[in-house]
């Protein structure tokens, strides 16, 4: 079975590299214990995890896949039973999985995926496409829908790549993880520039299927903007879009495949726009008097074509807690303290900005951007906070595991709106989270940052932490998730800016798209997936 | 019927303003007579035009529309019987229309459109949404499909607008013509920046329904990039997308509505991203040694983030004929002649570039761009050619009518491809047009320009003129159109970069999208338009 096995190089019970853990500074633990209270969160042993027995697969499906490319091993089934959402982590730590795939298929290439989908369609076996397994919204939950059996279709072997240097286009296999794709491109002096927090383990196919946005997407473009063409295997055959820079030949089918989250088919090839690897990079921190003033400063940058490649404005709460969690001392803390003292304020909002590219261009853009930030009342904290942010840019999920270790729930969610309605969305969602958790007896710390700024609006990314309600962790989460989601819907924001829909946001899709919009999606799904095998229970509301 | 009438302020037999005509310089006429030969192209009188008698509409449809909003007048039916494609002009001049709508409905607002579509769906009456009637691909041809009756749904009364200044978003009614929308925005110091050649008469709804691209789209963005949300009336109700800057909540339904060309529904509201009206504008001409060298120079601009807002590189043939048609003398001709003499070349390629925006930004960007063009072997021709191009930027369609007056066919078509494959596409399409018309005994002049440059490729826009084959004008056109389209398909280009599909490109949509892609579109159409009344015979191939 060598070469046809799924990956087993991450923690089975939490985020990422088994050798890497985050440790929380003592001061942070003390602060949290004082504000929200700490507990304990034990982890079951892998051998103790309970999961349902697998059902055997039909022979014709095994034949279509090649029997050396099928595994029903217990550990592999556990590894494909969840993504990395907060409820997923709670379930894994608790050691009881109500759902698991009956088998994991590990096809060698795109044509094999087409054959497998055809066979699954004939045999009415549900299929969950699986890339990096990093979904935080239940996108890879092994749901069966109306079918008896469900398989995970692990794309880790689809990792072919090639580069068209002249057109700055790379063809990348969907199974490539972020760092693998970057390493391939760096050999040619190129970069994709896509750095979501899931970068280390998320895959190219997953980025496309979920409309991922990365930390530098203001500069390089969101993943949906980077994709120039796709091939998608569906139960009725392969959909392939032309590799041209643009077309007016009807509605964009590429835009139909992007964000389809495995409910229409499986992305088997992607052409993406790449860039010269940056000659220079400059990240720095600024402090602004308040979140609204900071948002206005970012709006001005965006509307004057001066947006840096990375822009991230933390509200006062996130600014404070980040300093605490990173154990910031030295220039970063000093700079912020000084600023606050000079201004006679208790709090300030930290803005991280970053520029990448040719040396001259970085210098030119930075000078224009810095002047605009000063005009907006910003004070530079220098490069130290930028460097600190860069060092810590992928540690969030490790910190979440460390918080779970001390009985603290840590959850994130994101939305977006126009500038005119952004602050009311900010207030509404923050208040809803606060109120729901306070009512449950576990008052939270709610933080937010603005990122992914556009000329017409921006996204808001909320992080909240609270003591876990022991024994009813999932109920606690569900209540606050519903409260936050209903607040987003009421304020007219989108239910997700870049985490995607998965299982967790599906109930809000009727509010997002309306009846006619849902009918449009349902119709496409019925056309491409007539037996409804593709990723049941995701994206579309199950009652609609 | 006042206030509920369609517009009658354009030529019924050709392009645009009845008071405006282009006159061809004597030198140009002489040159053309020598190279391709001239003839004569008389125009029928409006009173002589033959068209089928209208069928009466069902009462319930009249009730849904409001009877004061229905016209069956002969002139209105003629005016809604064609767009502005070359075959349309041939038919109009010939005075025989095989197809005409049975009536023109002129609804007052979006809710009326929803009611009308519901009534048409119940009564099985085909509906052709009609904006500016400027389609050059048969997009508003009054085809009935499987239905007995067909109406034109003229959106000229849907012209409401409002502006969200903070978010730089304008809500624009689909019936607003380009200049009307710009005038509304200019009052607020804003611009949409969308200037296709059809600007004067094309409508906001039409720009969206056809994925229009304008002359300054490299800077301001194509129309599909400007649209932030849509409302689309369909036979099953209204589809409305959220007005947020971005969402990852599934496939983009906005991208499904854009380019749907009236086959899924009628766009009744559009939110578009607008900008501050430019403080400065600078247009200028450059000359480059050849088309391939020029394309490389434009590629370098695009891939170094130095792309001007307007970029248009003519090949040697277009450079020559443009000079001739514009009667260029003075600095423009002198500059070009001098260049050619100095370089010892017979031909050169003219590049028009334009920058718009804040004064400082224009100066900065222009300096960087000009330096890059000089490095690429470009020689500046100064601002005179830029001004000349600006003056003539909307006259193309008037010149086409003037050429028809002297028995000359003038047709355009466009495609796009990646940089790596652009020159082979250029050669293949140019040769196919050349060969087809030569074979028909009417050897053409074929011209091309590269515009709409992207980091990964560009569009090619072909113009060709040839003596008309008297008595078989349509056959002549059909043969060359097939030859050019087949060459595009064989080279892997898109069948249209911004003219859209309409009737004329529908036969090539299977090559463009593949079987599964067509099935996806067909499925959506069946879901939203179950009785198939929306713009029959457009976009989707009729045999598929």
In short:
Chain A is built from 19 helices and 18 strands.
Description of the molecule:
Two copies of one chain form a homodimer. Chain A is of the alpha+beta class and 544 residues long. Chain A has four domains: 115 residues, Uridine Diphospho-n-acetylenolpyruvylglucosamine Reductase, domain 2 (2-Layer Sandwich), CATH 3.30.43; 116 residues, Uridine Diphospho-n-acetylenolpyruvylglucosamine Reductase, domain 3 (2-Layer Sandwich), CATH 3.30.465; 114 residues, Alpha-Beta Plaits; 102 residues, GMP Synthetase, Chain A, domain 3. Helices cover 38% and strands 19% of the residues of chain A. The first copy, chain A, is built from 19 helices and 18 strands. In chain A, a hairpin with a 5-residue loop joins strand 17 and strand 18. The model of chain A has no long low-confidence stretch (mean pLDDT 94). Chains A and B meet through strand 9, helix 10, strand 11, strand 16 and helix 17 of A and strand 9, helix 10, strand 11, strand 16 and helix 17 of B.
Average pLDDT number of chain A: 94
Number of discrete helical segments of chain A: 19
User: Can you tell me the overall shape of chain A?
Assistant: globular
User: How many beta-strand segments of chain A?
Assistant: 18
Q: Which architecture of the largest domain in chain A would the CATH scheme give at its second level?
A: 2-Layer Sandwich
Low-confidence stretches of chain A: none
Structural class of chain A: alpha+beta
- From the 3D structure, determine the CATH topology of the largest domain in chain A: Uridine Diphospho-n-acetylenolpyruvylglucosamine Reductase, domain 3
Strand content of chain A: 15-25%
What is the terminal-to-terminal distance of chain A? 41 Å
Seen as an oligomer or otherwise, the chain set is homodimer
Strands ordered across the widest β-sheet of chain A = 15-12-14-13-17-18-16
Which pair of chains has the greatest number of interface residues, and how are they split between the two chains?
A: A-B, 92 and 92 residues
Q: Estimate nothing, just give the exact number of structural domains of chain A.
A: 4
Radius of gyration of chain A: 23 Å
Name of the level-1 CATH class of the largest domain in chain A: Alpha Beta
